[in-house]
Amino acid sequence: MNAPIKKLADVLKAGTEYLAERNIEHPRLICELLAARLLNCKRLDLYLQFEAVISAKQLDAMRRGVVRAGKGEPIQYILKQTEFYGRSFKTDSRALIPRPETETLVEKVLAEKKIWSIETGRPLVVDVGTGTGCIVLTLASECPNADYVAIDTSADAIELARENAVALGLQDSVTLRHGELPEYVEAESARAIVANLPYIPTDICEQLPMNVRNYEPRQALDGGPDGLSVINVIAQDAACALQSGGMLFLEIGEDQGAAVTEILAANGFSDVTVEQDLNKRDRIAKATMS
After folding, report:
1. Which pLDDT belongs to residue 138?
2. What are the structural domains of the chain?
3. What pLDDT is attached to residue 2?
4. Quick one: what percent of the chain has pLDDT higher than 90?
5. Which residues make Cβ contacts (< 8 Å) with residue 279, sequence separation at least 6?
6. What is the dihedral of CA 202, 206, 210, 211, to 10 degrees?
7. On the CB side of 267, how many CA atoms lie within 13 Å of its CA?
8. What is the gyration radius of the CA atoms in the chain, in angstroms?
């Protein structure tokens, strides 16, 4: 990236080669995303601008982004945003990057019509481990006739979620709290609890790809020796916070279905099911409070 390159096509080619030499996955895509942000256009529109001349200032900005990506920094952190369920969320190292699998979790919650009935009053829906706020803010956008509480043990994550709430005009729709579920939700008050908690075993965390291991917050990934430490806690807390007939939704590891089913049953949940994501991997556990 040190040559005096000025045309967009050449900039993209040089950046892609730079990243490929460093074994960065999807090097062309990363460069196109950087260029689209730089030129304030959609990625597909770049193909109409290959002959466009890139200014020295733009080239310098592009170089900085490519160098950061070359060190393994996730493109979502470089761009400071990512798309989730059709909306843009501010994304940085304060919280885990929203992933497509978690959209499946949102879809499962939205599909449970009994949660959203207002015949018995507005439902209380709680998001535990909210991170960027992508789950609770999506639910609040899709189903405004409910009360929402979002909780995280990271004060930094709560601040990021608050920034996203303001950006989406939902700052008055979601109550954001730093701490644990029992601190803010009364017993038998919630109709649904949704949680994407740390579920990766500690030793596996050390084997994660560099862009995850070195950049995303460890506390949002590490689920303890067996990956189930935090899930065990939320199963107990949710059993107290949910109304009879209320539902718990968890994102889980693809090999944790049987163990999570056992944990939920031991805490008084019934109708426990494990459902798959778009990649046909076990990803969502849902259960009803007896």
Report:
1. 98
2. 8-71 (1.10.8), 93-289 (3.40.50.150)
3. 52
4. 93
5. 101
6. 10
7. 24
8. 21
